[in-house]
Design brief:
The radius of gyration is 20 Å and the shape is globular. The chain contains eleven helices and nine strands. The protein has a nine-stranded mixed beta sheet, sandwiched between helices. The chain has one domain: Alpha/Beta hydrolase fold, catalytic domain (Rossmann fold, 3-Layer(aba) Sandwich), CATH 3.40.50.1820. By secondary structure, it is α/β, with parallel strands linked by helices. Helix 6 packs across helix 7, helix 7 packs across helix 9 and helix 9 packs parallel to helix 10. About 45% of the residues are buried. It starts with a helix and ends in an 8-residue tail after the last helix.
Length: about 425
């Protein structure tokens, strides 16, 4: 029965692929579509604790070849074998992506929102609310509901802010446009910007460890989005099967993990996360992946660097002699398949460093697209490479996300029920 069901799903995916949507995304030079190397590990803005010299000349491991050298030849093998292996590896890295039974005492009914203010804008209604993300933690959100556009239900987009502005900023970036064009929008910010006791960054991560044990910030963000989806699904205006996520910078980083681990998110847009896990940005600190912290449930006693035994870094980079981490974000892009994912980068340089995704990001996209191609939906993974800089919006950026969301959340929503 499972094989029959899978065959039906694959037939539907093949039919969808035949539509081959044309997005306003510039076609890259042919050389970029052949790129499979890592990012160069730079020191331009951030000092990586793992320099990995020569990574930029090393091929990123292909995802359709197992560790034992055998090749994944069919979608069935990907879904039943290789994908679960990667999911297990990354769950060990993150600790968890959802609460364990002993954690549930801290989570109540997230649908019990507390409204604060309500205002009318052209095309939508704007409501400030608090959501009980944990029983003792209310997180401020902004809810935008289409007005004068019918009764719905509408597709919904969860839109998070970046590092510096507050939870309302995505209304200006994307939300006002989306709500005026038939989407419910829920804006917020990551818990590392505003958590219990007014904490942020490192202290916020520490409070998670104190309460929940090994639960990296990126994994906690995945669960927070699942709470927001639970709330959205309680609203009559929302189509529960058409929910997307969108983020910039810090929240684009969250988008990568949300896409990989939350199948309820049907479409994802990540604006300039810097997809390389060890390139020119800061995936390593406590408020993201906490590479060098020791966890009791990470067992790597034979790791060749003794001081890194029992750390996330020992799992991400098991072969210290080979340039480049063996586990990198091309794996997470592939875990999102067959759901649509749009990466938008801000640099057309060879190695921009810093926060922007540049030409070297093609290596990660190309590796993940090998999986999307195997599944018959290569057009669902897109990379819009721009020279817009590290910005949430822009003349090159806006047409890409507008068309991508419209196609996959409004005009041609995918029928995906989970793995």
């Amino acid at each position: 029965m499972r094989n029959l069901t899978l065959a039906v799903v694959l037939l539907a995916l093949s039919a969808a692929a035949a539509e081959d949507p044309q997005f306003p995304i510039p076609a890259p030079p042919a050389a970029e579509l052949q790129r499979v190397n890592y990012h160069k590990v730079t020191y331009q803005l951030y000092n990586s604790p793992a320099p990995e010299l020569g990574a930029e000349n090393t091929p990123i491991p292909p995802l359709l070849i197992r560790p034992d050298g055998t090749r994944i030849e069919s979608p069935d093998e990907w879904y039943q074998s290789r994908r679960p292996e990667l999911l297990k590896d990354w769950t060990a890295i993150l600790g968890k992506t959802a609460p364990e039974p002993r954690d549930l005492e801290w989570f109540g009914d997230v649908t019990q929102a507390i409204p604060y203010s309500r205002g009318e804008r052209e095309g939508y209604t704007r409501i400030d609310i608090d959501l009980p993300m944990e029983k003792d933690f209310l997180q401020r959100h902004l809810l935008l509901i289409p007005k004068g556009q019918g009764n719905g239900p509408f597709p919904a987009v969860i839109a998070w802010t970046s590092t510096t502005p507050d939870y309302r900023e995505p209304e200006q970036w994307w939300g006002s446009y989306l709500a005026s064009h038939g989407y419910v929008v829920l804006t917020s910010w990551s818990f590392i910007r505003n958590y219990r006791q007014g904490s942020r960054s490192t202290r916020a991560a520490e409070l998670v460890y104190e309460r929940f044990g090994h639960w990296l910030a990126m994994g906690k963000m995945v669960h927070d989005v699942s709470r927001e989806i639970e709330y959205l699904r309680s609203l009559p205006e929302v189509d529960a099967n058409r929910i997307g996520f969108m983020g910039f910078s810090l929240s684009a980083k969250a988008a990568v993990y949300v896409a990989a681990f939350n199948p309820d998110v049907k479409v994802t847009v990540a604006v300039d996360p810097h997809i390389a896990i060890n390139g020119g940005t800061n995936w390593y600190p406590p408020w993201y992946l906490d590479w060098q912290r020791h966890f009791d449930d990470i067992h790597t006693p034979d790791y060749p660097i003794p001081e890194l035994r029992g750390t996330v870094q020992s799992l991400l980079n098991p072969d210290v002699k080979r340039p480049g981490f063996e586990h990198d974000h091309h794996e997470l892009l592939a875990l999102a398949a067959p759901r649509p994912f749009l990466l938008i980068g801000g640099s057309l340089s060879e190695d921009q460093g810093g926060d922007s995704d540049d030409l070297e990001s093609w290596g990660y996209v190309n590796r993940a697209k090998e999986v999307y191609t195997l599944l018959g939906v290569p057009e669902r993974l897109q990379y819009c490479s721009t020279n817009s800089g590290h910005h949430a919006t822009g003349e090159q950026i806006d047409p890409a996300w507008k068309s991508f969301l419209q196609y996959y959340l409004q005009d041609h929503p995918i029928q995906f029920k989970g793995y």
